[in-house]
Amino acid sequence: MREFEPIRSLVGRSCLALDDGDFNGYLDLCAPEFAYRIVVWSPELGKDMVWLDHDRDGLAGLFETLPDHLQRSGRFSRHASVYTVEEYSDAGPYSVVSSVVVHHTDLGGRTQTLAVGRYLDTVVCIDGAYRLSAREVALETRDLGIGLHVPL
Amino acid sequence: MSSRDKKSWDASPDMPAGHFVSGDVYTDPDIYKDESEKVFAKAWRFACHDSELPEAFDYRVFEQDGQSLFAIRGEDGVIRSFLNVCSHRGAKLLDQPAGNAKLITCFYHRWTYDAHGHCAGIPRVSGYSGDVVSKETMGLREVRTETLHGLVFVTLDDAAPDLTSFVGKALDRFSEMLTGQPLEVFHYNRAVLDCNWKAWHETNMDLYHEFMHVVLRKTQVNAMPMKDRKLIVFKNGHGGSGGDMKAAYDGYKGFAGRGNDIPPLSGMAPTDFRFINLFPSTAIISRGTVVRIDTATPMGPDKTLLEMRGLGVMGEPEEHRRVRQRHHNQYWGPFGRNVPEDTIAAEACADSFRGHAGRYQIISRDEGLTGQDDAVLRAFYKEWALKTGRDPGQPVSS
Fold it and tell me: What is the pLDDT of residue A88?
């Protein structure tokens, strides 16, 4: 059985980068063709909804504008557990499924669960370094309260 | 300029009635009860879009005045609504938010109902003596339902005037946009907010708060002269844009070219911004290529269920839909540039009024129904006062 520790580490570092607001660091983990989506199944409509959809440049633009926005105060903490890693071939890409839970801690120190879902990642190896080629956040949680500006 | 002492802070603003609102309207439990009985139990309220019930026997569950209801399309194509309650022992009938059911069967004792609300079956009905319990007498409680421009409205008041007289001319400028092409809902999300329902709905009526949103500061505030931005108020407390406002999307990073990439909705230019607020708590907002409908439903003096829908063109090519979704999500939805900031504002005001630190909201901007006039807010509270019998500036006897 092959070890996929570098891929697990990639998923973990992507969480840490977003938690810390290190958006350049997050983008450094992404391949040039990176595609990011948040997808939610709607039992009300009987179909999938797309709540966020950006390529790498679009995400970079979103990050650039964040400081100008009125944002929910406090911190987000993403907890991802890599469940499966499947390689399409020896050289990748890899299909990685992680369970993710996002908590929010307000300025008073009160922590609440904000969202649960899965990261459905495609990971590629570029010059020996693993990078996210695509991330689809498949959310179970549909009530996100006041909402948020940052990706999950 | 000076800071204010308690007497000054607590005193009613020295301005005409109707130009300010007491914080009590957001917190007082007796006012909330009045609103439930005199506003929400009487008004026509948006329930869903008719595209959510495309086939016979499709149903959609929703809430109204603390009660669960459902709308269902009959085999005759007519949409009817009922309390989501079994006539027998009061069990909630439909658990799923949407679905299809030719017969609705109560899980508890297997009583069944059809899409007309008729009771279709009572197991072992012979066990009841007399005529009181029979299929003829045990139908569902029907709720008046009417559809206008594809929007399904209900009222709990059997004696309410019809929908068209309630809406008046408020939707006239939306009719082509809503009916010029078949529309469908592609986005739906709900969120429970820690605020009174009016605190949310005010964000839809208050143009002055454009300054809060960087995206509006950069795309909207300077897109046209303020004096050319027209507002309009209608009878029954409705109000919105009186002429099309414009947006200059190139002003915000990532929005350049918005509207030139897919056809706009019928009767809209890509950069048009048009909105209407229907009393008490529904807003319809269009940005050229996409429509948002949101409804605030009270869950208590300090809790509000916010439901938001995004609509696009039914049957459009997949690549158009993807762009339209992006246009929607740029402003709206839980990750939009706009809506999460509105919810922060609504909850921030609620925080202040909850502890009575905040005393009044000032809604006295008068720009002659142009620019960022507060006229739509005043029209809302004028109707609110009429319905509740309370002065929004002093709603509780001192």
Answer: 80
Q: Given this structure, which CATH class describes domain B169-388?
A: alpha beta
Is it true that B55-159 and B169-388 share their CATH fold?
Answer: no
The minimal CB distance from B98 to the residues A38, A43, A144 is found for: A43
Helix, strand or coil for residue B311? strand
Cβ within 8 Å, pair A145-B192? yes
What would the pLDDT profile of B355-374 be if each residue is shown by its tens digit? 999 999 999 999 999 999 99
Concatenate the DSSP letters of all residues of A39-90 into one string: EEEETTTTEEEEEEEEEHHHHHHHHHHGGGS----SEEEEEEEEEEEEESST
Predicted ipTM of the assembly = 0.94
| CATH level 3 topology of A5-139 | Nuclear Transport Factor 2; Chain: A, (3.10.450)
Mutate which: A141, A146, A148, vs B, most B CBs within 10 A: A146
Strand ranges (E), B74-221: 79-83, 98-100, 104-105, 112-113, 119-121, 142-148, 151-155, 183-193
- Residues of chain B in contact with residue A50, where contact means CB-CB under 8 angstroms, are 322, 325, 329
User: Which of A38, A51, A59 to probe by mutation at the B interface, max B CB count within 10 Å?
Assistant: A51
Residue A92: predicted pLDDT: 72
Give the domain ranges of chain A: 5-139
**How far is B390 from B397, CA to CA, in rounded Å?**
10
Task: State the Cα–Cα distance between residues B241 and B173, nearest whole angstrom.
Answer: 10
Specify whether the CB–CB gap between B81 and B71 falls below 8 A. Answer: yes
- Domain ranges in chain B are 55-159, 169-388
Distance CA B8, CA B3 (A): 9
What pLDDT, on the 0 to 100 scale, is given for residue B201?
97
Structure token pair of residue B182: 């078949």
CB count, 10 Å around CB of B337? Answer: 25
* DSSP label at residue B35: I
- Over residues B56-93, the pLDDT tens digits come to 999 999 998 889 999 999 999 999 999 999 999 999 99
pLDDT at residue A1 greater than cutoff 60: no
Q: Does A24 touch chain B (CB under 8 A)?
A: no
The architecture (CATH level 2) of B55-159 comes to: 3-layer Sandwich (2.102)
Q: What residues of chain B score a pLDDT lower than 70?
A: 398
Nearest to A70 among B60, B186, B212 (CB): B212
CB-based contact B193 A46, cutoff 8 Å: no
What is the average pLDDT score of chain A? 95
The whole-number average pLDDT for the span A129-137 is 97
Find the closest chain B residue to A38 by CA distance. Answer: B335
